[in-house]
Amino acid sequence: MSIITRRPYRGEIDLDAIAHLINTCETVDQLEEGTSVTELKQSFDDPFIDKERDLFLWQDADDQLIGFSRLWIVPTDTVIDGFLAFRVHPTARSGDLEQQIIAWAEERLRQVSQERGLPVNVRCGSRADKTDRIAILERCGFKRDRYFFTMTRSLQEPIPEPKLPDGFTLGYSKGEEDALAYVELYNQTFIDHWNYHELTVERVLHELQNPYYKPESSLLAMAPDGTYAAFCYCHVNPEENQRNGRNEGDIAVLGTRRGFRKQGLGRAMLLAGMQQLKAAGVETAKLVVDAKNVSGALRLYESVGFSTVKTHISLVKQL
Predict the structure, then answer these.
(1) How far is 206 from 191, CA to CA, in rounded Å?
(2) What is the DSSP string of 214-267?
(3) Residue 295's pLDDT band (boundaries 50, 70, 90)?
(4) Please, are residues 133 and 234 in contact by the beta-carbon 8 Å criterion?
(5) Could you read off the pLDDT of 269-284 as tens digits, one per residue?
(6) How many CB atoms lie within 10 A of CB 145?
(7) Res 76: pLDDT
(8) pLDDT class of 77 with cuts at 50, 70, 90
(9) Is the Cα torsion angle 222, 223, 228, 232 positive or negative in sign?
(10) Whose CA is closest to 250, among 239, 234, 231, 261?
């Protein structure tokens, strides 16, 4: 058996090797989930990641990187969710290294459970057609928990004009200036959704540092009294488009605050977001939706021309 060692992330010195590993995996897996040093740095700077304890690397006997794992652990006062992402070099895939990585994640989350005195779940995802990965996760005790659809819609086709309710106006987030109000809007919008996790000002400020963040892509609907009632956050990643040979933009977040629903705000903000992406030169809009979303989001997206192109599965293991 070959010798495999693990070690913690050492900082930016590791970024090139991690990016190379992920992109090597991408040539085989074809997930359209490649990356760059710029994107990794932004991801690792997330305030929910403890870089010394939540990022680990696995190396073979020649010190070549063959595995990488990241845990994203959400602060909470109920059940802690640890979201595990990992990649294993195509030549090292047999199930053994994957099991080592999962065991590391469980070990780390049990430490967090003891520190915070709360129960923990480890969560991991897979595209539905990646049966080998799903089988490994299920052998390690994971159970299928939820399905998500990736949907796309051509922006070459006509986009209906957004129609806000009377008295409502369309505006933009002011970034750091209105971060607290934005956080309140987000939390009041999604608090009744499946697997909701509270947004914090720190995470908003982190997103503002994204090199591809555009203020005009953070759309807001204001009620007559100035309350933030709905929002649509769009995002275009030119590096991702270049890698995948596409010209896509994401409807990354869309929602309507409780108390303002059933007035057509969600549809209006979606259409406004699509218009914004088209104005930015994007040819296709993309989004991800919970297959069991209780707010009718799937029907809304289908009604304006989105169709499903991929299915992802969220799996969970209670520790």
Answers:
(1) 21
(2) -GGGEEEEE-TTS-EEEEEEEE--HHHHHHHT--EEEEEEEEE-TTS-SSSHHH
(3) confident
(4) no
(5) 999 999 999 999 999 9
(6) 16
(7) 86
(8) confident
(9) negative
(10) 234
Determine contact, residues 250/286, Cβ cutoff 8 Å: yes
What is the per-residue pLDDT for 95?
75
Q: Quick check: 261 pLDDT over 60?
A: yes
Gap between the Cα atoms of 246 and 34, Å rounded: 13
Residue written as token pair 């007035």: 263
Q: Which residue carries 């990356």 as its tokens?
A: 35
Torsion of CA 277, 278, 281, 284, to 10 degrees: 80
Per DSSP, the chain holds a count of helices (H) and strands (E) of 10, 12
Cα–Cα distance, 131 to 94 (Å, whole number) = 14
The number of beta carbons lying within 10 Å of the beta carbon of residue 119 is: 12
Question: Is residue 4 a contact partner of residue 97, using CB atoms and an 8 Å limit?
Answer: yes
Q: What average pLDDT is seen over the chain?
A: 95
Handedness of CA 170, 176, 177, 182 (dihedral sign): positive
What is the CB neighbour count within 10 angstroms for residue 302? 14
